[in-house]
């Protein structure tokens, strides 16, 4: 699949959602907090946003179903990888141009240097030709060995738990359960999350909402928050140590009004735009970073504030942290998309 095709499929999906919604770019910009020109660039395929947040808000405003949200997240991730690949190729071309010659020109340049230089290249080239296959074989052996050890470990762990009646430890669910999967293993994960207090649909489809709840569960159980249901997460799901219940949107709204006494309505609007007032809302980005909780505190801000993902999922800590950021800046520019949406709504 070419880099051109990937963004175009992503853009075509966005266009279909927009056309079905019947909303103009102006209306969508006001409701999502993105600029009209940015949305037009997304839908035309001329730009793939590096942050999934505006794409997710766009789809929700257009009325996308859970299945459509899952497919959109997949298309965005593939398109974003194509974008990053193009950037890397561009950097390589730029480096070659800075050197004043293409990579293939190096042997020619050496040859022009004289017979002694040519002799050096002739001596080095056969060694490289012999070394590359050897290095390739060594790399392959390392990969195969690592894969075998991982599979053996997983099989031993599954064998230890296979006969206890837990579906996630049966042969049918031996592999980790993750994004894009649609089967009984996902349904079991969703059922266990719901039993632990999570608010999500049990529909057998591992989409963005399930990803968020799995990640929140992992954070609250001190597991690696990778969003994938591996052996440790499976064990924790069958024996949860804490509930996934948190504050209701009503309680979140009331507390924000209390903390942001000077700008209560404004702060509530920002939080509602960011997370729908959901304390356990987690948004992953393709660069591996996440945004956490009520005000979607980014990993960068979290480090600046001396907090942890677990603290960021606590609504009181999250609201207080957001208030500190607001006080420090004197505005809500830490949340640019939602701040633009708020200003547009007030001016219209």
From TrEMBL:
InterPro entries: Cro/C1-type_HTH, Lambda_DNA-bd_dom_sf, Lysozyme-like_dom_sf, Peptidoglycan-bd-like, PGBD-like_sf, PGBDSf
One Pfam family cited in the UniProt record for this chain: HTH_31
Matches recorded under Gene3D superfamilies: lambda repressor-like DNA-binding domains, PGBD-like superfamily/PGBD
Entry keyword Nucleotide-binding: no
Keywords, in A-Z order: Membrane, Transmembrane, Transmembrane helix
Stretches assigned to the HTH cro/C1-type domain: 14-69
Segments of skewed composition (Low complexity): 102-112
Annotated signal peptide: none
Source organism, top-level taxon: Bacteria
Segments passing through the bilayer: 131-151
Biased composition (Acidic residues): 88-101
Matches recorded under CDD domains: HTH_XRE (cd00093)
Residue span of region Disordered: 84-112
Protein name per UniProt: Helix-turn-helix domain-containing protein
Phylogenetic placement of the source organism: Bacteria, Bacillati, Actinomycetota, Actinomycetes, Kitasatosporales
């Amino acid at each position: 699949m070419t880099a051109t095709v990937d963004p175009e499929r992503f853009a075509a999906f966005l266009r279909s959602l927009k056309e079905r919604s019947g909303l103009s770019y102006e209306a969508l910009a006001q409701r999502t907090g993105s600029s009209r020109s940015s949305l037009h660039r997304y839908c035309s395929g001329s730009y793939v946003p590096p942050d999934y947040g505006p794409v997710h808000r766009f789809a929700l405003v257009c009325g996308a179903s859970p299945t459509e949200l899952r497919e959109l997240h997949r298309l965005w991730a593939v398109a974003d990888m194509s974008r990053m690949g193009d950037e890397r190729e561009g950097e390589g071309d730029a480096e070659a141009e800075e050197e004043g010659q293409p990579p293939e020109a190096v042997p020619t340049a050496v040859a022009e240097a004289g017979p002694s230089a040519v002799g050096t290249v002739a001596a080095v080239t056969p060694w490289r030709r012999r070394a590359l296959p050897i290095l390739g074989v060594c790399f392959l052996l390392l990969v195969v060995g690592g894969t075998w050890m991982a599979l053996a470990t997983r099989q031993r762990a599954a064998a230890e738990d296979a006969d206890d009646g837990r579906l996630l430890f049966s042969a049918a669910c031996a592999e980790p359960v993750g994004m894009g999967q649609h089967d009984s293993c996902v349904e079991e994960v969703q059922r266990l999350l719901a039993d632990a207090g999570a608010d999500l649909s049990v529909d057998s489809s591992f989409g963005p909402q399930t990803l968020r709840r799995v990640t929140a569960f992992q954070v609250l159980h001190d597991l690696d928050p990778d969003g994938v249901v591996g052996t440790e997460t499976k064990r924790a799901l069958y024996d949860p140590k804490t509930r996934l219940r948190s504050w209701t949107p009503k309680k979140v709204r009331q507390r924000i009004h209390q903390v942001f006494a000077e700008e209560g309505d404004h702060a509530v609007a920002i939080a509602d735009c960011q997370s729908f007032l959901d304390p356990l809302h987690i948004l992953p980005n393709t660069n591996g970073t996440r945004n956490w909780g009520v005000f979607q505190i980014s990993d960068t801000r979290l480090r600046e504030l001396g907090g942890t993902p677990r603290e960021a999922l606590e609504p009181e800590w999250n609201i207080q942290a957001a208030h500190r950021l607001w006080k420090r800046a004197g505005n809500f520019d830490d949340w640019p998309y939602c701040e633009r949406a708020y200003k547009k709504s007030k001016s219209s």
